[in-house]
Specification:
- It is a single chain.
- The protein is 16% helix and 34% strand.
- It has two helices and eleven strands, in the order βαβββαβββββββ.
- The strands form two sheets. Strands 1, 2, 3, 4, 5, 6, 9 and 11 form an eight-stranded antiparallel beta sheet that branches. It has a three-stranded antiparallel beta sheet with strand order 8-7-10, with no helix packed on it.
Length: 201
């Protein structure tokens, strides 16, 4: 698995016209968002409300077919990039995919991270696609999850490896065993598509 311990930031992973289609669909008047009282998963002292929508869970489609078709171009382009970067022909499948929408929180401490986490216990790589320009950086830490030690690192133990600023059309692809998190937006809405991918063979 040549994507292990890798992080790639790629701009314009889909053409500008398709970026607009994704943005206009997710931020349009009919997309079904669901309220989440604390988008950090409850690990933060301060509640950080937001909205979510699930596309795929444990490999099963949970959203409308039109939404899946809209995202297939994104996923296919990401897989193609992975194959180019690693010079391999791996077989990949989407295990989990969902989108999150956060409204700017006035007075939020931009230096304070949300709860650090990994998305899956199985080996996987993560795709974070930014639907629109925003603040609220993604923070990827040098610390990695280990099956030998499931304990999350203490905040004082975290070492920042990469910060990625949300930009429309940008995707960050990384080993999902890197502990990672986000900072809250304070200036504009933050909308991402979070996809977890398994490799077979």
């Amino acid at each position: 698995m040549k994507w292990k311990k890798k992080i790639w930031v790629i701009d314009d992973i889909v053409p500008a016209e398709h970026q607009e289609r994704i943005k206009n669909t997710l931020l349009g008047p009919t997309f079904p968002w669901y309220f989440v009282p604390d988008i950090t998963g409850g690990g933060s002292r301060d509640q950080r409300p937001g909205f979510s929508h699930g596309f795929i869970h444990k490999g099963e489609i949970k959203s409308h077919e039109e939404n899946i078709k809209l995202l297939e171009v994104l996923w296919e382009n990401c897989m193609r990039k992975i194959k180019e970067k690693t010079n391999t022909e791996g077989k990949y499948s989407v295990s989990k995919a969902r989108t999150f929408l956060q409204l700017p929180l006035k007075g939020a401490n931009k230096k304070k991270y949300d709860s650090h986490h990994i998305d899956l216990m199985d080996e996987h790589f993560a795709l974070l696609y930014y639907v629109c320009d925003s603040d609220g950086d993604t923070v990827i830490f040098d610390n990695m999850y280990s099956r030998m030690n499931h304990r999350p690192p203490e905040p004082s133990e975290l070492i920042v490896k990469k910060r990625v600023t949300p930009k429309q059309g940008r995707v960050v692809i990384f080993d999902g065993y890197y502990w990672h998190t986000a900072t809250q937006p304070t200036k504009s809405i933050r909308c991402i598509i979070n996809t977890d991918v398994l490799q077979h063979g």
